[in-house]
Amino acid sequence: MLTGSAIRKKIGYQPMNESYALIKHLVHQKACNIHYEISHEDKVSIEHQLSGIIANVDLIPVLSTYGIHSDQGFLSDLEYRLLHYFFSETFDRHDLGTKLSRADPQNQLKNILEQTTPKDFVSFLQWCINKHTPAHLKILDQIKTVLSILSSRLAHHGSNWRVWERLQEYPGSQSIFLDIQRSIQSFLDQPHQAHYEALSKKLSQGLQAWVFLRAQSAKKGISLSLTTRLSIIFDLIARIDQLVAILYHPPSNRLFQTKLHQLSHQILVAKSDKLKFSALFRNFFGLVSLEITDFASSAGKKYVNNSKKGFIIMLKKGLIGGLMVGVFSLLKPLFGEMDLAPMMVFTKSAVIYSFIFLAIYFCKGTLATKQPAMTASHLAKTIDTINDSKKPVQELASLIQSTFRNQLIALFGNIVLALPLAALTYVTLNQIGINLLDNKTASYLMTGLHPFKTASLFYAALTGVCLAISGFMAGAANNWLVFHQIPERLLRKNTLKDQESSLKHVSLFLDKHFTGIVSNVSLAFMLGFLPFLGFIFRLPIDIRHITFASANVGTSIAHKGFNINAGDLSVYLLGVLLIGLINLSVSFSLTFLVALKSRQINLSFRTYSFKTLALHLFRRPWRFLLPM
Questions:
Q1: Residue 452 contacts residue 583 (beta carbons within 8 Å)
Q2: Which partner for 592 in 141, 376, 453, 528 could form a disulfide, CB atoms 3.0-4.6 Å apart?
Q3: Which of 543, 533, 626, 619 is nearest to 583 (CA)?
């Protein structure tokens, strides 16, 4: 049993911080289920000091800003953090954020709160602050003030011309966010059940409007400023919902306990992140990735098809991709005799890759390893939209099956043609007197794929990163094209009549192919210049792509006159398969994680979906291979 005096002696805090230390320790003991007792003298002391603190504390800045996306902009927030490390910050001694920073510099309260249930947390606050005391009444008044501030901010962001324009197609009220402000004011004037239910309904409609705006952004494009504004709207609705529940329900209500616990945790997390550069960059890149992953998701839809027809189409696309790589993979050694500076050598490689990738694209083929970067965003978006009911989760499992199946068949199509066609092409060129490879180069093409004696698997992981980045760039390019309405603006341009037809063709071409061109060219230049970085910095950096690796095996076998040991061949083919596995897994997982983080999706509570997926896998494993 721990007494208050024993706690004070154990902690050793100074008298001015005694209450903070005692409170932290008591909450910690409560969270750890350790029995404690406190004397009446200590309880009276804590109540007295807390009353004095709350009587002078200002909750408004914390409740209205902490845990809500900033609208100051990235550079302003960066400047604020930089100045903190050069100049002493001016503190408002009445601000709750200041008091929390001084009382909890090591951010221990956040960890303690995470170990405490909402019910125990509320019980502890009730124990510290008696109801109907001046301190309690002041807290309620400040919450009402914060609700007025938040409702004004919501009305401001919700009436922005970009938001207002896109709400014209919303089936509900275009002025939904202004309606929420009016409902909040009615609730504050008369906090009765009817006004509370009306406000709750409006908040639900506001959330539906936000979902509609996100869907519109996936169709019409979105800027970083609009992404930030939509994030602020979502945060404001969530904070208003929390404060309204706290203001209306009694502490014994479960909703009150949950909302207060969530709010306290958000405030403590925001306090710990307030001056962290990592938090600033994490939030910024989260907004940027959210801006572009929606469009990568849209591009990923075409790679997901449950029908047998879609399965056959994907096989044909994979075969076309394999054919192109098999035939054109010898372009690099064909132009390898050119005496060029190192920079131009790698530029030549990038141009050759661009030619091959664009040839695959315009011939309606596919490079299988590019699919995961697109389909991962589509899966993340699907996970974000499903609920906990049984049917949508089963649909998600079916979507994962079809995604895996289509990627596997496209990969098969790439490999099954790339290897033999590369060998056939090499033999054909050799027959007409074009000898592209010497023995050393031909040997390296194969030995460089050894999975255990070389760094080929590490190079495959680097290639997977490039594949993921090309998916992000495709999403960014599509977003830029749609948001700025480039095809439409070309058609509206005042031109001569004989130019109208040409501009129409350019507009249609950009609308259809701009994203594909950016994706393929960006991937080509990354693959071409990644070894250049290794050359400059003398680092072991290279690329390994499964389709080109299989073509290299075919070329090397043909150079040796198809005379190769079966054991060695099996090892190199294993290397090719491992390279493909790493290409796919790295690009998919990286894109998937970025998409989940940008949408703030937590998979920890979605255990049912994984159970359903496991049941599908073990009961019908053939569906991961064939459309049945």
A1: no
A2: 376
A3: 543
591, 466 Cβ separation under 8 angstroms: no
335-391 tens-digit pLDDT: 876 778 888 889 999 999 999 999 999 999 998 887 776 776 777 777 666 644 445
d(C-alpha 383, C-alpha 548), whole Å: 33
pLDDT digits (tens, 9 = 90+) for 400-452: 777 788 888 888 999 999 999 999 999 999 898 888 888 888 888 889 999 99
Q: What is the pTM of this model?
A: 0.75
Tokens of 579: 């390279």
Please give the distance of CA 216 from its chain centroid, rounded to a whole number.
Answer: 19
Query: Crossing angle of helices 607-619/390-431, nearest 10°?
Result: 60
Identify whether the C-beta of residue 78 lies closer than 8 Å to the C-beta of residue 280.
Answer: yes
- In this structure, which long-range contacts are made by residues 339-343, counting pairs with CB atoms below 8 Å and at least 24 apart in sequence? 342/532, 342/535, 343/532
| Residue 544 identity | R
In sequence order, which residues have a C-beta less than 8 Å from that of residue 62 and are 6 or more positions away? 95, 96, 97, 100, 267
Q: Which two tokens stand for residue 156?
A: 């401001």
Alpha helical stretches, state H, 170-275: 176-189, 193-220, 224-248, 254-273
